[in-house]
Design a protein that fits this description.
With 507 residues, this protein is mostly helical. It folds into three domains: 43 residues, no CATH class; 262 residues, Orthogonal Bundle (ABC transporter involved in vitamin B12 uptake, BtuC); 123 residues, no CATH class. The protein has 22 helices and eight strands. Helix 7 crosses helix 15, helix 7 crosses helix 16 and helix 17 packs antiparallel against helix 21.
Length: 507
C-alpha cells in the first residue's frame, strides 16, 4: 500500500484529537466512536412524568411484573366472596373474556404493528369450533381437555392462513383485507344453514345446546340455584394467567424484540435481516389463537353461538380497550379491558350515567382553567344562566319545565330545578339541540380568551339539556357516546394510553 493511502487509512480509524478527554468530561451519557449522540443521550430525551406522579410511577415500576400479576389474580379471585350477586360475577367473567381478547389483539397491533380488522372473526372461529366439537350439532361431545387445545390450534392455523395473503401488505391495505375477512366470516356463518346442501352453522339461528365445560370428568353447570356458577370465573381466570405469562415470555424473547422492530419500521427491520413475513404470520397466529380460546369459553358459558355476536361494534370495543390501556403494554391492555367493560355496565343505569357525565364535564373544565377568574365566571355564569333560562321557559309555558328526569335521586332532583325538562319533547327539538351542541363545540376550538369563556357558558347548559332530554332516553347508545367522549379527553391528556410508554420522537 502506498504511504499516502496508508496514512489516510490510519486517519480514518484513529479517534480525533481530544475526543477521549471530551467524552470523559461529559460523563457516561456522552457519545463514543460509532455511537450516535442522540442515542447516547436517550435518557435525557425520554419523556417521563414529573412531580409526585412521576416519582410514584418510577417506584411502582421497580416492583416485578409477576408480583403485580399475583396480586391482581388474588384480588380478582376474592371478588366473588365480596359480591354474592350472580350479575356481578357474570360481569367479572365477561371482563376476563375482554382481558383475553385485548391481550390477543395487543400481540397483533401493539407488538406487531399490524392493523388487523378481522380479529373478531377468530373469536367467532373459536366459538363455532367449540360448538362443532361439543354439542348436538354433529353429535360430537368431546371432553373439554381435548376441545380447548384443538380450538387453539385451529385458531392459530386460521390466523396463519389469513396472514398469508396479507404478509406483503401494510397500513390501510392490510386493514381492508382483514376487514373483508371479517365480513366474509359473518356472511358465511349467517348463510351457513345451506352450504353445499347441508346445515353447517345454523344460519342466523346459530348453534344451540353446546356442552358446558367439563373438568376431571365433571361438568360445570352454568348456574347453581339460579346464580352464576363462580367456577367459570376461576377457569377463565386460570386461562388468563397462563396466556399472560406465556405472552410475557414471548415478548421478552428475540421474537418479541423483533416484533417491536417490525412495528417501528418494517423496512429497517427487513434491511437488518429480520424475516418480516414470518414475523407477521407469527403475530397473526398468536393473536388468533388467543381469540379462538376466548371464543370457546363464550360458547361453553352461553351454550349457544350466534353470528350476530361477532360484529364490527365488538371489534371497535376491543380496539378501544387496547388503545385506552396503551398499545404494546400487556398491563395496559388488561387495565383498558377492565375500565371499558365495567364502565359500559355502570352506564346502563341512568343514575350512574348522569353522575359520570357531570363529573367528566367538571373535571374537563377544572383541567382547562383550574383556579382562575375564568373558572369562577364559568361556574357562576352557567348556574345563573340555567336558572334564568328555566324561569323564562316556565313563565312562557308550564309544560316546558314540567317533565321528570330519569331516575332522579338527589342529583337528578337538583338538575330538574336547573335544566329545562319538558313534559313532552317535540321530535324536532332533539336533533336540532344535538346538532347545535356539536356546532358550539366546534366553535369553541376557534375562539380564545374571554370569547371562549362567554360561549362556553351556553354550551355547557345546552350539553346538560341534550343529556337529560335526548341521550338518557337511549342508554344503549348513550353509554358508548359518553365512553367515547371520555376516551377522546384522555387521549388528549395522555396520547399513549394509561400505561403505554411514551415513544421518543426526533423533531
Amino acid at each position: 500500500m502506498p504511504d499516502d493511502l496508508h496514512d489516510l487509512d490510519q486517519d480514518l480509524t484513529r479517534p480525533l484529537a481530544g475526543a477521549k478527554e471530551a467524552s470523559v468530561a461529559e460523563g457516561g451519557t456522552s457519545p463514543a466512536v460509532g455511537r450516535d449522540e442522540w442515542v447516547a443521550r436517550h435518557g435525557e430525551h425520554r419523556a417521563v412524568r414529573s412531580g409526585f406522579l412521576g416519582k410514584l410511577e418510577q417506584r411502582l415500576r421497580v416492583v416485578p411484573w409477576w408480583a403485580w400479576l399475583v396480586l391482581f389474580l388474588a384480588v380478582f379471585a376474592l371478588l366473588p366472596l365480596g359480591f354474592e350477586s350472580g350479575y356481578v360475577r357474570r360481569v367479572a367473567f365477561d371482563t376476563v373474556l375482554f382481558m383475553l381478547l385485548a391481550l390477543g389483539l395487543n400481540v397483533v397491533v401493539g407488538w406487531g404493528g399490524l392493523l388487523d380488522l378481522g380479529y373478531v372473526a377468530f373469536y367467532g372461529i373459536g366459538a363455532y369450533t367449540y360448538a362443532f366439537l361439543a354439542s348436538d350439532k354433529f353429535d360430537l361431545h368431546l371432553p373439554t381437555i381435548v376441545v380447548l387445545p384443538l380450538v387453539v390450534v385451529i385458531g392459530a392455523v386460521a390466523g396463519y392462513l389469513v396472514g398469508l395473503p396479507s404478509r406483503r401488505l401494510t397500513g390501510d391495505y392490510l386493514a381492508i383485507v382483514t376487514l373483508f375477512f371479517l365480513l366474509l366470516f359473518g356472511t358465511m356463518t349467517t348463510n351457513g344453514n345451506d352450504a353445499f346442501g347441508r346445515d353447517l352453522t345454523g344460519g342466523a339461528n346459530g348453534i344451540l345446546n353446546a356442552d358446558p365445560l367439563s373438568l376431571f370428568g365433571r361438568e360445570l353447570v352454568v348456574t347453581k340455584d339460579g346464580i352464576f356458577n363462580v367456577a367459570y370465573l376461576y377457569v377463565v381466570l386460570a386461562a388468563f394467567a397462563i396466556v399472560y405469562v406465556a405472552l410475557r415470555f414471548f415478548n421478552d424473547s428475540r421474537t418479541g424484540r423483533a416484533w417491536r422492530s417490525l412495528r417501528e419500521d418494517p423496512l429497517a427491520a427487513e434491511l437488518m435481516g429480520m424475516p418480516v413475513s414470518s414475523l407477521k404470520l407469527l403475530a397473526f397466529s398468536c393473536g388468533a389463537a388467543v381469540a379462538a380460546l376466548t371464543g370457546s369459553f363464550l360458547a361453553a358459558l352461553s351454550s349457544s353461538v350466534f353470528p350476530q355476536t361477532f360484529s364490527f361494534a365488538l371489534l371497535i370495543t376491543i380496539y378501544t380497550m387496547v388503545i385506552l390501556g396503551g398499545a404494546g403494554s400487556q398491563a395496559g391492555a388488561v387495565l383498558g379491558a377492565i375500565v371499558i367493560s365495567v364502565g359500559l355496565e355502570l352506564l346502563r343505569e341512568p343514575g350512574n350515567s348522569r353522575f359520570l357525565f357531570y363529573a367528566a364535564v367538571i373535571l374537563c373544565v377544572l383541567s382547562l382553567y383550574r383556579a382562575s377568574v375564568e373558572l369562577a365566571v364559568i361556574v357562576g355564569g352557567t348556574l345563573g344562566f340555567g336558572f334564568l333560562v328555566r324561569e323564562l321557559a316556565g313563565r312562557i309555558d308550564d309544560s316546558w319545565v314540567g317533565g321528570v328526569v330519569n331516575e332522579g335521586g338527589r342529583l337528578g332532583d337538583g338538575i330538574a330545578d336547573w335544566v329545562i325538562v319538558p313534559v313532552t319533547l317535540e321530535t324536532w327539538v332533539g336533533p336540532v339541540a344535538y346538532v347545535s351542541l356539536i356546532a358550539l363545540l366546534l366553535a369553541l376550538t376557534l375562539l380564545d380568551g374571554w370569547w371562549r369563556v362567554a360561549l362556553l357558558i351556553p354550551t355547557l347548559y345546552l350539553g346538560a339539556f341534550v343529556w337529560e332530554n335526548v341521550l338518557l332516553a337511549r342508554p344503549e347508545v348513550t353509554r358508548y357516546i359518553l365512553l367515547g367522549a371520555m376516551l377522546v379527553g384522555l387521549m388528549i391528556v395522555r396520547p399513549n394510553g394509561l400505561l403505554g410508554e411514551k415513544r421518543v420522537q426526533v423533531v
